[in-house]
């Protein structure tokens, strides 16, 4: 078989299959181009960070961007399915919003602020947020990883932080230590800062462990020395461990005893009487 013959056969084969191959190629390329154009024309709802980790007592802040790529003005309704007890709000330009109006080709930065429930367990929470209009429905899935938090509160059972005491006497102040965090608190000690020569003892003086949401009662016995002047005084009680601290400022009104008051009145009367006698004796001369 000659080279000329093979060349002629190749040309015939190429002419025969060139047109069908060209049709097939164009058939595949045209949808690809249209698909890219469709994707480009669709609106978008994106986030810079999808996963944020923070303590339970802090607010999770996600930054999102809503883009209207349609050829019409759109009003997007913003919704979310947050975990039970959580608070989620959308903000744009410093204001809280529930919907937003976007002109064709425009975009808007939307902040999503999420406040976990106070008793949220330390773990990862996943929840969707939506931007919906008449023609578009977009969804973002966000993740909030809640860290355990150490938090302590020292107060009184009634919440009242004031009382009265007579000088030279003792008084019992009932305190309440509360674990308001999400992690156990160990080895909580109690201390006091009082006026000079005052004394305080605690029962118990230390709490070995306090579980989240639990509280413990503590009695502080306050001793005021004799001859303490009547008036208002401030004592500061502190509950702390290596992870958290709480302080309660307690105002104490000191009153004089009846005996001290009677002696004082008697001294005053004696002094007045003595002056009166002197006036009567020397005033006649």
Automatic annotation (TrEMBL):
Alpha-galactosidase NEW3 domain span: 166-240
Q: By its UniProt entry, which InterPro entries does this protein fall under? A: A-galactase_NEW3, Ig-like_fold
Keywords, sorted A to Z: Membrane, Transmembrane, Transmembrane helix
- Bilayer-crossing regions: 258-279
Q: Mind telling me which Pfam families this protein's record contains?
A: NPCBM_assoc
Highest taxon of the lineage: Bacteria
Q: Kindly give the Gene3D superfamilies that the UniProt entry links to this protein.
A: Immunoglobulins
**What name appears for this protein in its UniProt entry?**
Alpha-galactosidase NEW3 domain-containing protein
**Species this protein is from:** Cyclobacterium qasimii
The upper taxonomy is:
Bacteria, Pseudomonadati, Bacteroidota, Cytophagia, Cytophagales
């Amino acid at each position: 078989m000659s080279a000329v013959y093979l060349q002629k056969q190749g040309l015939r084969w190429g002419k025969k299959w060139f047109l069908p191959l060209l049709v097939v190629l164009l058939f595949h390329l045209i949808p690809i181009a249209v698909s890219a154009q469709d994707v480009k024309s669709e609106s978008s709802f994106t986030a810079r960070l999808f996963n944020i980790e923070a303590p339970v007592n802090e607010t999770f802040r996600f930054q999102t961007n809503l883009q209207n790529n349609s050829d019409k003005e759109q009003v997007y309704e913003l919704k979310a399915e947050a975990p039970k007890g959580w608070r989620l709000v959308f903000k744009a330009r410093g204001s809280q919003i529930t919907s937003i109006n976007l002109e064709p080709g425009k975009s808007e930065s939307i902040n999503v602020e999420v406040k976990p429930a106070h008793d949220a367990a330390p773990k990862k929470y996943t929840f969707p947020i939506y931007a919906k209009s008449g023609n578009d429905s977009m969804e973002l899935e966000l993740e909030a990883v809640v860290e355990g938090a150490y938090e302590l509160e020292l107060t009184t059972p009634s919440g009242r932080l004031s009382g009265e005491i007579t000088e030279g006497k003792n008084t019992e102040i009932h305190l309440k230590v509360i674990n308001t965090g999400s992690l156990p608190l160990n080895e909580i000690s109690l201390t006091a800062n009082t006026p000079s020569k005052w004394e305080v003892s605690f029962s118990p003086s230390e709490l070995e462990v306090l579980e989240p949401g639990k509280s413990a009662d503590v009695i502080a016995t306050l001793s005021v020395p004799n001859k303490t002047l009547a008036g208002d005084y401030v004592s500061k009680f502190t509950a702390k461990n290596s992870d958290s601290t709480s302080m309660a400022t307690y105002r104490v009104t000191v009153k004089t005893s009846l005996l001290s008051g009677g002696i004082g009145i008697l001294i005053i009367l004696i002094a007045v009487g003595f002056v009166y006698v002197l006036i009567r004796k020397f005033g006649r001369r």
